[in-house]
């Protein structure tokens, strides 16, 4: 692991000491507790916000923003944190994969804004490639750049390569004459490159795509990467123009492409948005809000904002792949206290949907049934726990079979935490406004 200096180490220790203590319920092994504190192997709440996962050589790797205590923790004072696991519930701290720099001239100097890091392994080179949203120190959210780093091992150390706007001097492949007209944000930014804020990476076969909120967060853009995945190849498209989407998370299921995104409300949660397409480049069609539950849950996406969708293998041979929706519950007044909302994605016909679960495991996560009276029944498909290739690799015996039906009305399911600080207008994102208070998560 890359060595970090004493200042960075002290910042990390101070942040860890400021985190709330972990309760016995929150440290129960083998189960997911959305919105609860999540301890690593050292008993410290996992610090990998806005992150994504990579499956590599028998382990899952979780990369995310390392946040520190207080409002200052919303800037990058440490770097990108890495964790690894064999079962998705018990995580080993692998240290800082990409530290911020002590050089004030570096784009990733301490105090910059470094968000939503994602890592993919290139099969041609065998190297691990990290992309992230970068804002230069002292410029608020005006820089809107994409950064890239590379490593020879999943845990790093990652070497920062460069940062900048995307595809300067190139028009999107699907841009119309109206899109190119003087006065549009697309035309304004074309010479120097397109803005890149909230982002994810999506690998489709041997092609990797950089997906990001652009054009002052009005429009998503999908930019193709070159074969080594370290830069863009010049081909990109606009998706959901003027839709005001951010926090994209993409997955492929049943021969189609799905995307979960959010609206623009700063740190405050808002209704999730679901899109579908027959090709990754679109056209994309809206499927509305994927959340099923109470009005509050639908309006706030259970208190979280999308960051990634994790594909899992089928529970049994011949079964369908499973998917886990990953979201962040932001705590802007004390950034290190942000939580994680992981939920199994279920289906209503060909529409993926999300329902709140106070607790779930890989064995029972896809077995809940809802009846006509709006009641949830934890009915596990027979044999799934025994055959689940993921649950069986857990170090603790968490998989179990549910016999009978335990009725639990939806209104009794635990509600997501609401922090009044999230309503502070200081943290609300202004649409098409750059500056210190314009947060482009």
TrEMBL record:
SUPFAM superfamilies: Arabinanase/levansucrase/invertase (SSF75005). Residues 1-24 form the signal peptide. Keywords: Glycosidase, Hydrolase, Signal. Residues 416-441 have a biased composition (Basic and acidic residues). GO terms for biological process: carbohydrate metabolic process. Pfam families: Glyco_hydro_43 (PF04616). Residues 413-441 are annotated as: Disordered. GO terms for molecular function: hydrolase activity, hydrolyzing O-glycosyl compounds. Belongs to the glycosyl hydrolase 43 family. This is Beta-glucanase.
